[in-house]
Design goal:
There is one protein chain. By secondary structure, this protein is of the alpha/beta class. The protein is built from six helices and twelve strands. The longest helix has 24 residues.
Length: 327
């Protein structure tokens, strides 16, 4: 299909780590001529270590998905955290700073999901077939926006904690509020049917608390030096003191045994682990095809039919398994 794009759509304002205000925006890509009134929606989150990157980094990705019949939004979210007295990020003042950055980003992603659900009629998008997807810090954000859904799961770091002290200057760290945030609350919630995490991680696998919850797709290279595939601090492979004040994350290799033990519904969990040592996708075309098909299978389910006695002239088969003749 052809693709139509809307750029710089404002979905809310939120307080930055330093007390300023961010105007949060997104770019939305939709197919043209598909004739669909409830397109599936992907909300994509860029990477950048919670200090850099931009939503425009995923414009090409969203445009490609839109050409395949999806709607795809690439979002901005709050970036930044306090560095040490001597070094700016990626060095962190303490482990609380990165946890707070993850929490703020997840709040923003939830707000973006609710914003897009709220304009579903305008965009001809579904309010149920909605998925989150992210790369690196964006995957960390997407995973927490999906699975951080209980008040008890709010990290203690996201509450009011001690100030950051740089020499004689003190910077307050107030309570960050509810895990859902305050953006676009109302008619629609921020729930999604699944999440795709490309070389991301979770603060705690216990956030995935049910095999019947949102479906999960993860991708990782085994020796990723930035976000470990196993259980380690970000930048573990870089050293130079950068990882010292980062919290431990569970990467795809560490999530896998937990997810398998939890017992996801068949088709609702998939992990692709590649033997490599890079913080990237080793074959972008193949992994995009694989992940898109996995997402599609969540709502394009096969319809098993054995023998049906037809007593009426019309037979409705749902979900529709074919665009052609059904015999």
């Amino acid at each position: 299909f052809g693709v139509a794009a809307e750029s710089d759509l404002w979905y809310g304002n939120a307080l930055r780590f330093d007390g300023g205000t961010d105007s949060l925006r997104l770019n939305l890509y939709k197919p043209v001529g598909d004739g669909q009134l409830e397109r599936p929606l992907v909300v994509a989150v860029h990477g950048g270590g919670f200090t850099g990157g931009h939503r425009n980094d995923l414009n090409g990705y969203c445009s490609q998905l839109a050409s395949m019949g999806w709607s795809c939004a690439t979002i901005s979210y709050r970036l930044g955290f306090y560095g040490t007295v001597l070094f700016q990020p990626p060095w962190a003042y303490d482990p609380h700073e990165v946890r707070r950055a993850i929490f703020r980003a997840a709040q923003d992603a939830k707000g973006a999901v609710r914003f897009l659900k709220g304009r579903h009629a305008q965009d001809s998008t579904s309010t149920t077939n909605v998925l989150l997807l992210g790369f690196s810090a964006g995957a960390i954000t997407a995973l927490h926006a999906t699975y951080l859904d209980q008040p008890a799961e709010k990290p203690a770091s996201a509450s009011a904690i001690a100030d950051v002290q740089h020499l004689f200057t003190f910077y307050p760290r107030p309570d960050l509020g509810d895990f859902d945030g305050t953006l676009n609350t109302g008619e629609f919630d921020a729930s999604v049917i699944g999440v795709v995490g490309m070389y991301g991680g979770l603060l705690d696998t216990a956030m995935i608390d049910s095999p019947d919850g949102p479906a999960l797709y993860t991708y990782h290279q085994t020796g990723d030096p930035i976000v470990a595939c196993g259980h380690d601090r970000p930048y573990w492979g870089i050293g130079l003191g950068v990882p010292d004040n980062y919290p431990y994350l569970f990467g795809s290799c560490a999530i896998a045994p937990y997810a398998e033990q939890l017992g996801f519904t068949p088709g609702h969990y998939h992990s692709t682990i590649h033997a490599g040592n890079a913080h990237e996708v080793h074959d972008p075309s193949a992994i995009m095809t694989e992940s898109a098909q996995w997402m599609r299978d969540l709502f394009c389910l096969p319809t098993p039919v054995s023998a049906i006695a037809v007593t009426q002239p019309r037979l409705d088969v749902r979900p529709v398994p074919s665009a052609g003749v059904i015999t």
